[in-house]
Please model this.
Amino acid sequence: MDAFFAAIEERDHPELRGLPLVVGADPAQGKGRGVVSTANYAARRYGIHSALPISMAWRLSEKARQRGEPGAVFLGVNHRRYREVSERIMALVRRHAPLVEEASIDEAYFDLSRAGSFDRAAAICRQLKREIQDQERLTASIGLGPNKLVAKIASDFQKPDGLTIVTPEEAEAFLESLAVRKIPGIGPKAEARLARQGLRTVRDLKKFSPEELQGWFGKWGLELYERLRGRHEAPLQEEYEPKSVGEQETFSTDTLELQFLFDRLLHLCRHVRKRLLAEGFRACRTVVVTVRFADFDTRSRSHTLAAATAALDRLQFFAMKLFMPFLDRRENPRKKRIRLIGVRLEKLEK
Model:
């Protein structure tokens, strides 16, 4: 879906149509502590995007206002409403495909092999886009490819309201001119490291052998070699199984006040454990604690237990043990104040 949260708000509030729209935390006149969930395409022209600190989004909006352009409208997140719309859209997808993998609230993979040809599969995609438009008055962008990797990249190729078709014969050539960051698995740090060596496109990386890529990226380098050529064998997974359960909290004021931090950490542990059990899991084996400092430096520490547990006292004990280095010279020698803490449970067991 295209700018899903913002598109729903724009649809439901006609007076907002055409205006830059930002859905996320309260910007608090530039002093807000959270992040952007979604920005519509008008706001993206100002440089506002998902996961951007809301305070920075506010500043970009103010700069646009000073240039004589309309300032962004900031709205809170209405998860219940977005989930309702998502469920109706996923129901439309399932009318056309026997196998659907819901990747997130606004994204899905679906198998059109039974169509028998790319032409017939493309006709189904066009029909689905029309149905979403007619029923929900929202636009979707679809990538049609020989596997999940190519389809995912193609879905971003002509946003908004796009349909990009990449046949098996075209897949390798389609990827060659793209930036290396477009390949899932290559993040900002790897992109920067490659750029320092003059490697910016998929074509640049394709010059290297599997062994050379393995030397740079470890075992994943072998998979990357295949991905660069549009080859990817990951199957669709109709039953989505969460790999982790986590929560985080951004504080209204950066702090090193111990009692406050300990209270919030223990509260997060209680909340995450409650979610773990509510989602049908009986235990976890790994506890992860994340800290974001006032300068946005973000670090995580994790511990894998010898035996799985869901005991609150055990989870809190290990979370506290992981958190303590962020208060002393081990992880915080400059005594930076803390902006955010998070707790995540991984290696979940039914």
